[in-house]
């Protein structure tokens, strides 16, 4: 059995089951990410150190060196792709690596930084089509695998949606998915703006991916404005 997410459809498991796999409070996942906190050498005062420590305590699952949160961001927003959602959308409930590549290539050609999140087990799953496409995206840094492991005959999969929303929230990114992430909004209300205002849904027509010109409705920004800070 695969416990967690990305089990073969666009429907995600309910939060109650996800919470069974919560990490210990003292477990820190260190990732080489762009963006969040690094006091400069010789400049850290006691108050700055306290503030930095508090930031790490508040968000123990994510650590981002070399960031300046006070600096106003400009230009194109980072794109964070829900790999499972896009793959199953393109494959019509079959996992399609090509769908992920088409989506990622679209935003790369527009000049965006693109990150795709996908559970690790998908890399070697027998239902994964064109695995060489995933290998190429992993090699160039586009694809980031979230943790999964097999124990006692069961596949334990950390909740990939949490990685997606958390990374987008920390970096001002747009999430490409048809998931509403309501369970994560209930889990962490601080992600409300990211989930409500930075979610870009799509439509597949064969191998053509389409995005709405009005992502937040007729009274919101157009797509070109939506893609920028």
TrEMBL record:
GO cellular component: cytoplasmic ribonucleoprotein granule; nucleus
Coiled coil, from the record: none
InterPro entries from the UniProt entry: RNase_Zc3h12_NYN, ZC3H12/N4BP1_RNase_Reg
Domain (RNase NYN) ranges: 76-225
Single Gene Ontology MF annotation: RNA endonuclease activity
CDD domains: PIN_Zc3h12a-N4BP1-like
Source superkingdom: Eukaryota
Record-linked Pfam families: RNase_Zc3h12a
Protein known as: Putative ribonuclease ZC3H12C
Originating species: Lygus hesperus (Western plant bug)
Source species taxonomy: Eukaryota, Metazoa, Ecdysozoa, Arthropoda, Hexapoda
């Amino acid at each position: 059995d695969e416990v967690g997410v990305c089990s073969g459809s666009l429907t995600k498991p309910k939060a109650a089951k996800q919470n069974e796999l919560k990490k210990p409070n003292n477990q820190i996942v260190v990732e080489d990410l762009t963006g969040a906190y690094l006091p400069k050498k010789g400049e850290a005062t006691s108050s700055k150190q306290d503030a930095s420590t508090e930031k790490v305590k508040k968000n123990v699952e994510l650590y981002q060196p070399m960031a300046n949160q006070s600096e106003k961001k400009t230009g194109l927003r980072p794109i964070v792709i829900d790999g499972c959602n896009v793959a199953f959308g393109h494959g019509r409930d079959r996992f399609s690596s090509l769908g992920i590549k088409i989506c990622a290539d679209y935003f790369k050609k527009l000049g965006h930084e693109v990150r795709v999140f996908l559970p690790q087990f998908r890399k070697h799953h027998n239902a994964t089509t064109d695995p060489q496409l995933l290998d190429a995206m992993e090699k160039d840094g586009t694809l980031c695998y979230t943790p999964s492991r097999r124990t006692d005959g069961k596949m334990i999969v950390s909740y990939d949606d949490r990685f997606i929303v958390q990374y987008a929230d920390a970096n001002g990114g747009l999430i490409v998915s048809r998931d509403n992430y309501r369970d994560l909004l209930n889990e962490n209300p601080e992600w409300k703006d990211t989930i409500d205002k930075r979610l870009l849904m799509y439509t597949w027509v064969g191998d053509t991916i389409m995005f709405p010109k009005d992502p937040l409705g007729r009274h919101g920004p157009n797509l070109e404005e939506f893609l920028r800070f």
